[in-house]
Amino acid sequence: MWLAHRGRIPLLAGVLAWASTAHGELRPLWELGVGMGVTSIPAYRGARGEVVYFLPLPYLVYRGRFLRSDRQGIRGVFYQNDRFQLNLSAYAGPPVQSGQIPARTGMPNLSPSFEIGPSLQYVLIDTPGTMLDLRWPLRAAFTLSFKPIGWVSTPNLNLTLPDYRGSGWMLGASIGPNFADSRYHAYFYDVAPAYVRPGRPAYAAGAGYSGSSVYLTVSRRFAHYWVGGFLRYDNLAGASFVNSPLVETQQYFAVGVGMSWIFATSSRLVESEEP
């Protein structure tokens, strides 16, 4: 899946693996590929204007009993049954160059970040043509220097159509609210007294609601390559940090496309629950 975490850059580098095959088939234990992706997103949620990233796009699938990399990303599965799964999820975000954002002029740059934590998944509908599930991750966020910057929770309702009308294309959609603690919001939206200037008063963000996100995704696995794309809409109306002077817009779109050539697959086959 294209993993775009709430205003962060999608993880084009390593966790995009959508295979459009029937549910319950035997599949290779691992698959490897390489390609290129491009995405246009805001520097952070609420920033005006977009930043365009051209990134290498590794295609990595691993269908182990615990460690897996598939359409849901790279994760460790601690427990699962027919309806419920508990796994470990991880996400990452790019640096923010304050000099490129008028609202942050003169403020420090923001370091690249990553998030890791448990995620609950409950399957509501699971048929050969439709999968609907509820996912509720809770992740701790850090900079690359392992400085903690708070907690994030992004519950969402996720719909997958693995073979839309027999076309071989996989379509997906998800919608859900975002929540974070005050330390996480402060990292992006606080204005310390030292950085106050006309039009940018001091501000201290609180914890709570962080806006809502809608994702639309499309992908297809061909014999030797994979293609995919995503469209995301974010709305920050009612967010606990919406009055920060660093929030320049309350709604925006983000988009990305990519393609990978698959050059190696495992000869060992395993049963997979992927749609």
UniProtKB/TrEMBL annotation:
Pfam families linked to this entry: MipA
Keyword line: Cell outer membrane, Membrane, Signal
Compartment annotation: Cell outer membrane
A cellular-component GO term for this protein: cell outer membrane
Primary residence: membrane
Taxonomic superkingdom: Bacteria
Record keyword Signal present: yes
Family membership: Belongs to the MipA/OmpV family.
Name of this chain's protein: MipA/OmpV family protein
